[in-house]
Amino acid sequence: xxxxxxxxxxxxxRPKDVLLITFxxxxxxxxxxxxxxAILHQVEETFRQLTEIYGALSAGEFQLxxxxxLIFFQDLHIRVSIFLKDRVQNSNGRFVLPVSxxxxxxxxxxxxxxxxxxxxxxxxxxxxxxGGHYVTAPKEGSFELYGDRxxxxxxxxxxxxxxxxxxxxxxxxNLASRTQxxxxxxxxxxxxxxxxxxxxxxxxxxxxxxxxxxFRLNLxxxxxxxxxxxxxxxxxxxxxxxxxxxxQDQQRNEELARIMGEFEVMDQPRQSASKGDDLLAMMxxx
Amino acid sequence: MFRRERSIPLRCSAAALCNNLSVLxxxxxxxxxxxxxxxxxxxxxxxxxxxxxxxxxxxxxxxxAGVSPPLITQVHWCVLPFRVLLVLTSHRGIQxxxxxxxxxxxxxxxxxxxxxxxxxxxxRGIASSGHFICVGTWSxxxxxxxxxxxxxxxxxxxxxxxxxxxxxxxxxxxxQGQDCMADMVTADDSxxxxxxxxGPEFKLMTQIPGFGVPCPSVQLWxxxxxxxxxxxxxxxxxxxxxxxxxxISAHARAICALDLxxxxxxxxxxxxxxxxxxxxxxxxxKSGHTEVEHCHAECVPDTQVCGARFCDPAGSSxxxxxxxxxxxxxxxxx
Lengths: 286, 334
Prior knowledge:
The complex is a heterodimer. Chain A is mainly alpha-helical.
């Protein structure tokens, strides 16, 4: 939380944009409570008061606010997994400052020297190599009650549409590593197939190792919801555990062995690390 | 071309303030003194040419009635004709020390008067002109202190009114001995520049209007004002007339420091976009106008630069500080 706040203040393009970050927060709150007109009214009142107090501040005053906040967060280098994963934070805890992408609204793309004579007429124009790769700002974020803030800082950082700037130097590398991740086998799939293999009796049951071996079956989308459901479950519904001795059933084993026999692989059997890998490879070939 | 030298470790990291590095060269002892603001404290250290820190000292802003220690806004060495003083400005007042920071010789408390408690009260912007030290304040007033050749008998001789918003930086250059020569420029949060002539009574020569964008750093060289703005622009004006001669789209983020190497007319600009640029200023022999040439670009990766200074009058080396960075980075030409 602290680091997310520091990130937003540090990366904020113009000092004045700290207000746009706050408006992004308020927009998100408005999204949560859109069905409740009374609360919505309170949020809009908050918005109105923020605009009243901060709307008229000069760029210099916003810079003072930003600098003071940065002094408050100075020497905090906590590493945050989501930032590290998105490569917006380095392993030493410092944030990545992009040297490309759009410049702040009102700023010209660096790289031009213009010279004027005494009457203010432009007499010479020289380009120079700045070192960054910037583009002009598309438009200014809206400081109105409703509108496009443009700035993504301050929006939900867990949403799929990541608020991070993708214009950093290692962007292409980043993309490559993501593709690599998706090629790598999902460990959960392997674990599930191993379980299936065990049920089929084609693999001996080992003692569980590690803190949480295998996988759990969730009836809800997240662990939090699962826990919540467990807590709110009415007392009268007692646990009824159903034991299925699938691995012990000899008759079924014979039947399964026959089915497994049908999955005959014509190619040379590969040297794989485990049964799960075997099954995955087999499915790839089907 | 510049090459990175061994950096100087700091005990505490640098705060996100503009012009957050002061450099004093002591050629007689082959030493360089550095001053960096950490937040509620400031660090002074002296280093040998190889970058080995020899002595460190910490200074604190004078405590007041508040609950939290006051934040320091700037430290700067003022080289006067007969002595060198270290000036420290904070949200409480102005402190002047002997050049090594050992003895505080003067304290000036800021008078907040009847301003509302939400208004930030501070001093910022330090420069010396002749035997005067000028310090800017939050209200836009510039305080002029008369400094005796020795001893603590410092007096506030004048208050200059020219700015309506907080002063950001002050630059001076030695008077060239001519009449009507502008030798001091002050900048403020609205981007307004005031050009002054120093003397027993300071005289406002010109005002160069701003654009609503702050001007965090300003320099003066041979009658040319170099101003760095919050939108990454560097502008060069004729000090006496206020005519704009050069406009450089120099940086992608707010400029936080400018410095000049007076012997060669090299200008250094540093900004929050992690870049430090070196420019060469010259006078066109034909028209007499100031011209600019880009010499060098240095990127300090993932560092929001907050201070940068040349380390010698020939501009062959410079030092950089960055927000949250507990070292002074040094570069020298090869």
